[in-house]
UniProtKB/TrEMBL annotation, chain A:
Subcellular location: Cytoplasm; Nucleus
Organism: Thermothielavioides terrestris (strain ATCC 38088 / NRRL 8126) (Thielavia terrestris)
Domain of life: Eukaryota
GO MF entry, a single one: protein heterodimerization activity
Protein name in the entry: Multifunctional methyltransferase subunit trm112
From TrEMBL, chain B:
MF-aspect GO terms: S-adenosylmethionine-dependent methyltransferase activity; tRNA (5-carboxymethyluridine(34)-5-O)-methyltransferase activity; tRNA binding
Protein name, UniProt field: Methyltransferase type 11 domain-containing protein
Methyltransferase type domain ranges (all copies): 88-198
Gene Ontology annotations of biological process type: tRNA methylation; tRNA wobble uridine modification
Classification via CDD domains: AdoMet_MTases
Bias-annotated ranges (Basic and acidic residues): 243-255
Taxonomic placement: Eukaryota, Fungi, Dikarya, Ascomycota, Pezizomycotina
Species, as recorded: Thermothielavioides terrestris (strain ATCC 38088 / NRRL 8126) (Thielavia terrestris)
C-alpha cells in the first residue's frame, strides 16, 4: 500500500466516518519497502490539491520521514523545486507499507497489511 | 423501495449451502439481533457470502484468465479523466482497468482477497513494463509513464475511502451481485459519497456504474423483458488443461473476454458458449458454481441512483448491460 493511498483512506466502520479521529489511519509495526516508479512531475503537481496535507504530515512523521512543512507547496513552488518533487515522489508513489497494521484512532480497530495489501473486511459485529 | 425489494428467502436457491447460510443468519439472529430488518440484512449477507463472495474466491484464477480486455466504453471514460485525477475502481476484480490511463492515480478495491492478489501482481507487472518503456524512451519524454495504481480488500457496503476523496469512480459488473434493492441502493450511495460533490458553477466527480441487463434480446440464455430478475448463473470451473485450450480457442476466434458482444457483465463458460470449441465443454468432473445476479430492467438503475441521492448525468444500454454516469449534487452543462 502506497503512502499516497493511505491519504485517501479512513476507517471502514460506518460510525467512525463522522469522527475526525478516524483519519488518517495510523500505521503500526509497519515494514516499508520502496518501489522504483518513474517520476511524473505533472501528475504530482495535479495531485497536490487532492492530498490532505495535514494527514500526510502526520503519516510522514509516523513512518519516520523528515517532517513536512506546515503548509503544502503551491503548484509553482513544486514545479520549480526538483528536490521537493523527488522527495514527495519518493514518499507518495514509491514508499509502500508491505507488512503491518493500520489503526483507527476512533474505534481502535486494526486492519492488517500483508504482502502490500491492506484488508478492510470487517468482523460481523462491526458491520 | 419496499414494493420491489427482495428478501433472501425469495431468492433463487439450489444448494445445501443456502441452508447453511440461513442457519448462520438464524444463529446471528438468536445471538441478539432481534429486529426483523437486522435479520433480513444478516440473511442477505449470508446469501451473498455463499452465492457471490465464496464463488469468486473459488474461481478467481479461472475468472481472471477470462477477463483481460477492458470494455471500450469504460476505457474511454477513464482516458477522458484529466492528468492527476484520483479514481476508484470498486469491485475491480483482477484490476484490468487500473493503469488504462497512466496519468491518473487509481485505487482498486474488491471483496475477494484472491482477485486482489491477482490485481496486485498485474499492477506490478504493468509498472515494470512501463518502467522498461520509460528506460527505452528518448529524452525522458515517455508520455507520463509513472503508473499510479494501488489495490486493497474491502466490502462495497463498508468502503474505507474518505468522503469526497475521488474525482471519479467506476463500478463495473458489481452491484448486480447484491441481493436486495436496499443493498444495491446503499452500494450506489457509498460510491456517490466518495466523489467531490458539485456546487454552483462547478461540476463534481462522476460515478460510472455498469450492471447486467434483463433485456438481452440476442442472449442465448433467452432473458428478456418481463422475465425473472433474480437468478443463479452457473460458472463451470474447467480443469487447467481444458482452460488453456479454451482460452486459445477464444483468442483464435477473436471473441475475447469482456468485449461487448461476447462479454456480458460476466458471461461464464457454459455448454452453449463453449461446445463449439474442441475440448472446452464441461465434463461431469468440472465443478459448477452458482453466482447470484440481479438483472436490471430498463430504468431501474436510474431509479436506484435517484433513491441513493444521486443525479443521473447520462445513461444507456450497451451489449447486455445498463450503464449510468451519476453525480453527487448539481450538474452543469
Amino acid at each position: 500500500m502506497k503512502v499516497l493511498t493511505l491519504n485517501f483512506l479512513t476507517c471502514a466502520v460506518k460510525t467512525c466516518k463522522s469522527s475526525a479521529n478516524s483519519f488518517p489511519l495510523h500505521p503500526k509495526d509497519a515494514e516499508l519497502v520502496s518501489d522504483d516508479v518513474e517520476l511524473n512531475p505533472q501528475l504530482l503537481v495535479n495531485l497536490l490539491p487532492r492530498i490532505d496535507w495535514n494527514a500526510l504530515r502526520i503519516t510522514s512523521t509516523e513512518l519516520g520521514f523528515p517532517q513536512l512543512p506546515e503548509q503544502p507547496p503551491t503548484a509553482e513552488e513544486l514545479q520549480s523545486d526538483e528536490k521537493m518533487l523527488k522527495d514527495l515522489h519518493t514518499l507518495l508513489m514509491e514508499t509502500q507499507i508491505n507488512e503491518g497494521k493500520l489503526v483507527c484512532g476512533n474505534c481502535g480497530h486494526e486492519y492488517a497489511v500483508r504482502e502490500g495489501i491492506a484488508n478492510f473486511l470487517l468482523p460481523s459485529h462491526l458491520v | 423501495m419496499a414494493a420491489s425489494s427482495t428478501t433472501p428467502s425469495a431468492l433463487p436457491s439450489t444448494s445445501a449451502a443456502d441452508a447453511v447460510a440461513r442457519l448462520t443468519a438464524k444463529a446471528d439472529e438468536e445471538a441478539g439481533a432481534g429486529a426483523a430488518s437486522v435479520t433480513a440484512e444478516a440473511e442477505a449477507e449470508a446469501y451473498e457470502r455463499t452465492h457471490v463472495h465464496g464463488v469468486y474466491e473459488a474461481i478467481a484464477p479461472h475468472f481472471s484468465a477470462t477477463r483481460y480486455k477492458p470494455w471500450p466504453a469504460v476505457a474511454s471514460f477513464l482516458r477522458a479523466q484529466p492528468r492527476g485525477a484520483i479514481g476508484l475502481d470498486v469491485g475491480c476484480g483482477n484490476g484490468k482497468y487500473l493503469g488504462v490511463n497512466p496519468d491518473v492515480f487509481m485505487v482498486g478495491s474488491d471483496r475477494s482477497p484472491s482477485l486482489i492478489a491477482l490485481a496486485r501482481s498485474r499492477c506490478k507487472q504493468l509498472q515494470f513494463q512501463q518502467g522498461l518503456a520509460a528506460g527505452a524512451g528518448t529524452g525522458g519524454d515517455v508520455g507520463g509513464a509513472a503508473v499510479g495504481t494501488d489495490v486493497l480488500v474491502a466490502d462495497g457496503l463498508s468502503l474505507p475511502f474518505r468522503e469526497r476523496a475521488a474525482d471519479f469512480v467506476i463500478c463495473v459488473a458489481v452491484i448486480h451481485h447484491m441481493s436486495t434493492r436496499a443493498r444495491r441502493q446503499d452500494a450506489i450511495r457509498q460510491l456517490l459519497r466518495c466523489v467531490q460533490p458539485g456546487e454552483a458553477g462547478r461540476n463534481g466527480g462522476r460515478v460510472l456504474v455498469y450492471v447486467w441487463a434483463l433485456e438481452q434480446a440476442t442472449s442465448r440464455r433467452g432473458w428478456d423483458k418481463g422475465g425473472e430478475q433474480d437468478l443463479l448463473v452457473p460458472w463451470v470451473l474447467k480443469s487447467q488443461q481444458k482452460q488453456r485450450r479454451e482460452q486459445k480457442g477464444i483468442r483464435d476466434h477473436g471473441a475475447v473476454g469482456d468485449t461487448p458482444g461476447s462479454k456480458s457483465g460476466d458471461r461464464p463458460p457454459s455448454p452453449a458458449a463453449t461446445s463449439a470449441e474442441p475440448g472446452a465443454g464441461p465434463s461431469q468432473t468440472d465443478p459448477v458454481f452458482q453466482r447470484y445476479y440481479h438483472l436490471y430492467r430498463e430504468g431501474e438503475l436510474e431509479e436506484d441512483v435517484l433513491a441513493a441521492g444521486g443525479v443521473v448525468v447520462s445513461s444507456g444500454y450497451e451489449k447486455d448491460n445498463w450503464w449510468v454516469v451519476a453525480a453527487n449534487g448539481p450538474v452543469h452543462p
